Amino acid sequence: MGTLVLLRHGESVWNAEGLFTGWVDVDLSAKGEEEARRGGELLVGADLRPDIVHTSVLRRAIRTAEIALNAADLHWLPVKRSWRLNERHYGALQGKNKAQTREEYGEEQFMTWRRSFDTPPPPIADDDQWSQAGERRYAELPPELMPRTECLADVVDRMLPYWYDSVVPDLAAGRTVLLAAHGNSLRALVKHLDGIDDATISGLNIPTGIPLRYELNDDFTPRKKGGEYLDPEAAKDAIEAVKNQGKK
Ligand SMILES: O=C(O)[C@@H](CO)OP(=O)(O)O
């Protein structure tokens, strides 16, 4: 029932610099802003008019939704935000260069940290400059839920309650939902929607700024597995680029 549009934020400054980002609140690059605008134009072109927006509490997703909706003349839509849609917490890798990490630890360890389902990177220390411990934004989060690192399995666990409690009711009410989030929080949601197994999900990458449309059945399973990118050609190239990050 209903239509769900997933949108990964446009390129961030740290995407451009090749740094692990996670919960660090970096902004969009100029290219990322342009991708977000184009995302909005793609919505218009596909005649897709969301009724409500859900975002993470990170600037790059919030701004992407804002820019895209502004381009679609839908800047006035109601919006809900949750830390549960945040990017995967990248632990001690936050702020580190991907290519250097790959060189230092080798391809296998690098890819295990990036894409394995259940191996998190080492936790970040609370006094690390890239830690979020003590941030006001997370003050209402029970301390035991505040991550210091996450694997994709952890993201599935913390994202699903938001999906069921907040997004599904909007879809059940017949609303078209725009969900603006992140590479790995969207991988977690797509894994759930498409029923992808723990091993296969490692090969799935989400491009920046290209809306992905899912038409849903009454039980909120997709009518078509994998959904449909509004610009499939651009998505192909962009998926390849995400996959190859860290390779010089
Ligand atoms: O750095 C990150 O937080 C993510 C998304 O940009 O990177 P990756 O695709 O390597 O998981």
List the helices and strands and how they pair.
Elements: E1 3-8, H1 13-17, H2 30-45, E2 52-55, H3 59-71, E3 79-81, H4 98-105, H5 107-115, H6 152-172, E4 177-181, H7 183-194, E5 212-215, E6 228-229, H8 232-243
The protein binds 2-phosphoglyceric acid.
Family: Belongs to the phosphoglycerate mutase family. BPG-dependent PGAM subfamily.
Site (Transition state stabilizer): 182
Protein name: 2,3-bisphosphoglycerate-dependent phosphoglycerate mutase
List keywords for this structure.
six-stranded mixed β-sheet; His_Pase_superF_clade-1; binds 2-phosphoglyceric acid; 6 strands; 10% strand; 248 residues; alpha/beta; isomerase; Rossmann fold; glycolysis; phosphoglycerate mutase activity
What small molecules accompany the polymer chains? 2-phosphoglyceric acid
Low-pLDDT segments: none
Shape: globular
Indicate the CATH architecture.
3-Layer(aba) Sandwich
The share of residues in helices is 25-40%
Q: CATH topology, what is it called?
A: Rossmann fold
Going by helix content, strand content and strand pairing, the class is alpha/beta
Range of strand content: 5-15%
Strand order of the largest sheet: 3-2-4-1-5-6
Taken together, the total number of domains comes to: 1
CATH superfamily: Phosphoglycerate mutase-like
Determine the N-to-C terminus distance. 44 Å
Question: Could you give a short account of the major beta sheet?
Answer: 6 strands, mixed
CATH class: Alpha Beta
Q: If helices are DSSP runs of H or I spanning 4 or more residues, what is the number of helices? A: 8
Mean pLDDT: 97
**SSE string, helix = H, strand = E?**
EHHEHEHHHEHEEH
Pathway: Carbohydrate degradation; glycolysis; pyruvate from D-glyceraldehyde 3-phosphate: step 3/5
Function: Catalyzes the interconversion of 2-phosphoglycerate and 3-phosphoglycerate.
Binding site for substrate: 8-15, 21-22, 60, 87-90, 98, 114-115, 183-184
Family: Belongs to the phosphoglycerate mutase family. BPG-dependent PGAM subfamily.
